[in-house]
Design brief:
The protein is of the alpha+beta class. 64% of the residues lie in helices and 10% in strands. A hairpin with a 2-residue loop joins strand 4 (360-367) and strand 5. Helix 2 packs antiparallel against helix 5 (92-102). The longest helix is centred in the middle third of the chain and has 77 residues, at 186-262. The radius of gyration is 33 Å and the shape is elongated.
Length: 430
């Protein structure tokens, strides 16, 4: 990894020195708090987690409630067949409850899918396990709790596949009753299928509607957040441009005009030039900058800068709950945005690979009052040690900018054929 001054000198630079307290405070605190803080979950993930937990607990409750009927019907089975059916039908639901409480979306879907398939497999085995009709019963116990398998299928798969599962499982449960219930008829078979499919369809619709509503909430939230962040970022950029335009007009151009009229020896002109230089220096500092961006505005500011270069670059952002109290000065946001835009332009110019599309991503992470921006591509890459001295895009436009920013630092990682990663960090404590 090459730090912000590594392309210019081998000695530590001010930017790299500024990074040490940044790492030792803000980002280190953020990392050590990860075990206690969770990334804010999307609404669809929260709904899936809660539904998985509810279905898992329901499976355990069903096992307790149906235990007397399970025991009665098991009297007609010799060997471990009955226990095998119970384990296949209900054994995965406690696992689903635990996974829904402790793990993520993918694990919940996988376990729910296994539970649904296992339940269906248990239904298929019923005619073989219960080889003779059961006495004094109206239905096998698994028929009455078919909704468990359907709910697991809804959690695991798309609505169309879950609906297909419902039809297959209802038909299988009706056929199982046909084999084990005395004096079953074709009419009773049709009735069993209709009752099972109708009841489970209600559960299916409710769950699909809840998941779809959560997905809509996520989409609208992302759209609203992006719109608000884009507006805030654009407003901040406009304020910055207006401030610099006013300074150029009122200070620089006025000084140059007076110099052309009065000559270089005028005391008034000399004082005006000194004040203008002081104002330019203040614009580079942090003490007199009144405009601060919060986390959402900073994300929108950087997203706008990236999309101005190329809207096809993938942009993602994450914020740690309780640790995203960012107050980023506009001038610092401008510096980071300029360095990020230059990294994107360099990638578009030099990272092209013949015969395939180069993937470019920007990841912004905000944590504990600091910001970390990572630009990656999987393009041609290059050897940092062989960058010509007259190539200023990396050493000046990216790393040099970040080195001059108080509390900021930049890094570049690249190898020929392995793509390039540019990391920009800033910490509010300097």
């Amino acid at each position: 990894m090459t730090a912000s001054g590594a392309l210019d000198t081998s000695t530590p630079t001010a930017g790299s020195a500024a990074l040490d307290p940044f790492r030792a405070s803000r980002w280190r605190r953020g990392r050590t708090t990860v075990s206690r803080e969770k990334i804010v979950e999307a609404a669809s993930d929260r709904i899936l987690r809660r539904m998985g937990l509810a279905v898992g607990i329901a499976g355990m409750i069903v096992a307790i409630v149906e235990l007397p009927d399970i025991a009665d019907q098991s009297e007609f089975v010799s060997g471990p067949g009955a226990s095998l059916v119970v384990g296949m039908a209900l054994g995965w639901f406690p696992v689903l409850a635990v996974v829904s409480f402790t793990m993520g979306r993918r694990a919940i879907r996988v376990v729910a899918g296994v539970a649904a398939v296992s339940y269906l497999a248990a239904l298929v085995t019923i005619p073989f396990i219960y080889a003779v009709p059961l006495i004094d019963i109206t239905s096998v116990w698994m028929y009455r709790v078919l909704a468990l398998g359907v709910l697991a299928a809804v959690l695991a798969w798309r609505p169309a596949l879950a609906t297909g599962y419902l039809l297959v499982a209802a038909a299988t449960a009706a056929l199982a009753n046909r084999y084990v219930v005395p004096d079953a008829t074709v009419l009773s078979l049709i009735g069993d299928f209709a009752r099972a499919a109708g009841l489970c369809a209600l559960f299916l619709w409710c769950c699909i509607f809840a998941l779809a509503a959560a997905a809509r909430v996520d989409r609208e939230s992302v759209i609203a957040s992006r719109r608000a962040a884009s507006v805030a970022g654009a407003a901040a950029r406009d304020r910055e441009r207006a401030r610099f335009a006013a300074l150029i007009h009122d200070g620089v151009l006025s000084t140059l005009l007076d110099a052309s009229r009065a000559g270089a020896e005028s005391p008034v002109l000399r004082g005006q030039a000194e004040r203008t230089l002081e104002q330019l220096d203040e614009c580079r500092g942090t003490n007199t900058e009144p405009d601060l961006l919060d986390a959402q505005s900073a994300i929108g500011f950087l997203r706008s800068a990236v999309y101005e270069v190329n809207p096809g670059i993938r942009f993602t952002a994450s914020r740690w709950a309780g640790l995203d109290d960012l107050r980023l000065p506009v001038h610092a946001a401008g510096t980071i945005a300029a360095a990020l835009a230059e990294a994107a332009r360099n990638s578009l110019r030099h990272a092209t690979v013949v015969g395939r599309t180069v993937q470019r991503t920007v990841t912004v992470t905000i944590s504990a009052g600091g910001i970390r921006v990572v630009f990656r591509d999987d393009g041609t890459g290059f050897d940092l040690d062989r960058v010509p001295a007259d190539r200023l895009g990396v050493s000046v436009s990216i790393l040099g900018r970040m080195r001059q920013l108080a509390g900021g630092a930049g890094f570049v990682e690249s190898q020929p054929g392995e793509g390039t990663t540019v990391t920009l960090v800033w910490g509010g404590d300097g």
